[in-house]
């Protein structure tokens, strides 16, 4: 290819052919064109002018003109705009002038958008270098005031994209800008209205002085009406973009919406509650509301003052939890990652947002909303509603700890009642889930005040052999119970608990066995020396798993057995465990000698087990150090879970020796 012909200012034929070759399916031809294009950058002025000529040639193919716009943006912005900055002033002036003309005259929508992006990139680069594009702002003001709808939309989009650069410089013209945006928000053309909304939000986010931002506050009703109009026109894509802009606004300055808060909240709640709208639309409206509730530091108490807001939002989020189906595979799933089978997108949003609003608003606000709906939901004939009530209770527990701890017996009652009486397995699972969550969030007060009802209920649930998901979850919930439980509260139930767990270990369901192993390890950790009573019965089960649980499908079961055996050793102590230490250590070394695949979690369980066993056995562990140190040193390359500092470093108080 002749570079001179390609950059010939009197013809764009060869250059257009080069652009076409850059997207060729023929690798050799494409690579040759890429090399030639790279060479053309040596004559930046010639390359820039050819790109502009192709872009502006109305008789040219749309594909070539699009490519010219894309490449111009890439070339002008590479290396912090070095090529554009090196252009002759005359070339820069021509490029800038032609880009504005293209914006005004272009008929192809796709190319117009690319020209907008190109103008923004060029302008941003100039401003970052403290250079000027004197014609740009007058052109944009003129376009927004007097141009056609397409040109108005383009100019508004440029305003929005450049707001971070030009926002403060427009402060003296805020009144003019306010009038222009107000007019555009009332346009009959929806793209213009959305572009005006985009620009409004961008300027509010960019302006540094809060008093300047508040001068746009009276535009909120018109901004909100743009969203409403999009929904009325069944244009949910546009509505979702508008909602995204409002969310960014709420994150940037929640106080901006204060004067129109009731109207904003009513509109967003109506969208979130509207069952005929797309899930994505309802989710975004909810996110706006939750974002405002979380802004308590910058706008304290603002959302609590909106009449009936908390109750309606709570009810809406509970309704989201009804987005669930009784998937048959859920009942037989053996992997924890399959626990979400049957759950829709709204279900996940409902869970997350209930947790967030409880943390943001606190028990005095959220618990009354929960109490208002709980009786009707928990007594409803529809299992989904009973399930939703219990899931909601578990989700708000963390944020409502102070309120729930005042009456832990009452807090667990809905879960205990459902676990004892509800015929639906998924509802009983939700009840177990709620108990487990509250054991964590409300401990140790819950364990001290409600152990006589909670632990027997979980033990009973372990007998539900027809529903292994409930069995496994009940075993897992005892881990939550025991972790924060005073040993004296656990002691009366140890015999029964150990019998249940050992029975579950012999079950055919892998997830039940894994949960039982974790519960057994946690029980040993809680019982400590009292666990000696069960040691002789438990250890053979654990050794049997290490020997016989072969195959990749049993990785986690083996890993749990490794964890359990090390915690049992720690619990019963060196004197008792040393009698079996050699056999156990040989089994673990044999397991480690077989090697682990990269995604096998057993590696981490092994490392933690070696640490515990070293602490348990003391100097009796020395013969195994050579074998253990290799994997430990290899793990040093991994990101650490714990960072150890020298005692007293950085003013820290000295920690205890252990």
From TrEMBL:
Superkingdom of the source?
Eukaryota
Single GO BP term: protein import into nucleus
Residues covered by the TOG domain: 352-609
Q: Where in the cell is it found?
A: Cytoplasm; Nucleus
Keyword set includes Repeat: yes
Keywords, alphabetical: Cytoplasm, Nucleus, Protein transport, Repeat, Transport
Q: Which Gene3D superfamilies match?
A: Leucine-rich Repeat Variant (1.25.10.10)
Note the InterPro entries from the entry.
Answer: ARM-like, ARM-type_fold, HEAT_type_2, IMB1_TNPO1-like_TPR, Importin_beta, Importin_rep_4, TOG, TPR_IPO4/5
| Cellular component terms per the entry's GO annotation | cytoplasm; nucleus
Q: Where are the transmembrane segments?
A: none
* SUPFAM superfamilies (alphabetical): ARM repeat (SSF48371)
Pfam families with a match to the protein in the record: HEAT_2, Importin_rep_4, TPR_IMB1, TPR_IPO5
**UniProt protein name:** TOG domain-containing protein
> What organism is recorded for this protein?
Ostreococcus mediterraneus
């Amino acid at each position: 290819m002749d570079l001179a012909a390609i950059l010939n200012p009197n013809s764009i034929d060869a250059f257009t052919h080069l652009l076409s070759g850059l997207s060729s399916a023929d690798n050799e031809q494409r690579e040759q064109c890429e090399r030639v294009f790279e060479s053309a950058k040596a004559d930046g002025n010639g390359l820039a002018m050819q790109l502009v000529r192709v872009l502006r040639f109305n008789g040219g193919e749309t594909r070539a003109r699009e490519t010219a716009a894309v490449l111009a943006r890439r070339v002008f912005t590479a290396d912090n705009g070095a090529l554009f900055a090196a252009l002759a002033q005359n070339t820069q002036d021509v490029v800038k002038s032609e880009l504005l003309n293209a914006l005004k005259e272009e008929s192809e929508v796709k190319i117009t958008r690319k020209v907008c992006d190109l103008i923004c990139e060029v302008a941003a680069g100039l401003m970052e270098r403290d250079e000027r594009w004197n014609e740009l702002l007058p052109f944009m003001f003129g376009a927004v005031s007097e141009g056609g709808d397409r040109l108005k939309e383009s100019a508004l989009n440029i305003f929005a994209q450049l707001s971070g650069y030009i926002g403060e410089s427009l402060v003296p013209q805020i009144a003019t800008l306010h009038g222009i945006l107000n007019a555009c928000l009332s346009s009959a053309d929806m793209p213009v209205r959305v572009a005006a909304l985009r620009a409004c939000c961008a300027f509010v986010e960019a302006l540094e002085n809060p008093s300047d931002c508040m001068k746009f506050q009276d535009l909120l009703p018109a901004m909100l009406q743009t969203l409403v109009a999009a929904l009325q026109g069944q244009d949910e894509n546009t509505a979702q973009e508008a909602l995204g802009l409002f969310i960014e606004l709420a994150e940037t300055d929640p106080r901006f919406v204060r004067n129109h808060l009731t109207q904003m909240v009513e509109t967003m709640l109506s969208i979130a509650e509207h069952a005929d709208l797309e899930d994505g639309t309802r989710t975004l409206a909810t996110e706006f509301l939750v974002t405002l509730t979380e802004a308590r530091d910058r706008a304290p108490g603002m959302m609590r003052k909106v009449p009936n807001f908390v109750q309606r939002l709570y009810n809406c989020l509970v309704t989201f939890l009804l987005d669930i189906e009784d998937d048959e595979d859920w009942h037989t799933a053996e992997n924890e990652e399959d626990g979400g089978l049957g759950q829709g997108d709204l279900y996940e949003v409902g869970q997350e947002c209930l947790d967030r609003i409880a943390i943001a608003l606190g028990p005095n606000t959220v618990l009354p909303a929960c109490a208002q709906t709980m009786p009707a939901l928990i007594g409803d004939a529809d299992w989904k509603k009973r399930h939703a009530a219990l899931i909601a209770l578990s989700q708000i527990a963390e944020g409502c700890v102070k309120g729930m701890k005042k009456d832990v017996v009452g807090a667990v009652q809905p879960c205990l009642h459902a676990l004892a009486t509800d015929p639906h397995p998924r509802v009983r699972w939700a009840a177990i889930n709620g108990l487990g969550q509250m054991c964590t969030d409300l401990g140790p007060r819950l364990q001290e005040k409600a152990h006589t009802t909670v632990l027997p209920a979980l033990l009973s649930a372990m007998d539900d052999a027809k529903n292994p998901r409930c069995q496994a979850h009940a075993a897992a919930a005892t881990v939550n119970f025991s972790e924060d439980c005073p040993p004296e509260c656990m002691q009366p139930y140890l015999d029964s608990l150990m019998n249940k767990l050992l029975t579950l270990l012999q079950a055919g369901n892998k997830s039940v066995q894994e949960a039982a192993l974790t519960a057994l390890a946690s029980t040993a950790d809680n019982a400590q020396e009292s666990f000696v009573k069960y040691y002789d019965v438990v250890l053979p089960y654990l050794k049997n798993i290490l020997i016989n649980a072969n195959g990749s499908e049993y990785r986690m079961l083996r890993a749990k057995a490794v964890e359990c055996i090390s915690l049992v050793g720690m619990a019963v102590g060196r004197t008792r465990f040393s009698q079996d230490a050699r056999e156990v250590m040989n089994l673990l070394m044999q397991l480690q000698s077989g090697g682990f695949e990269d995604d096998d979690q057993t590696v981490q369980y092994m490392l933690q087990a070696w640490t515990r066993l070293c602490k348990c056995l003391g100097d009796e562990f020395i013969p195994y150090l050579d074998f253990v140190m290799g994997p430990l040193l290899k793990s040093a390359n991994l990101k650490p879970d714990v960072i150890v500092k020298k005692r007293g470093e950085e003013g820290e108080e000295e920690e205890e020796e252990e």
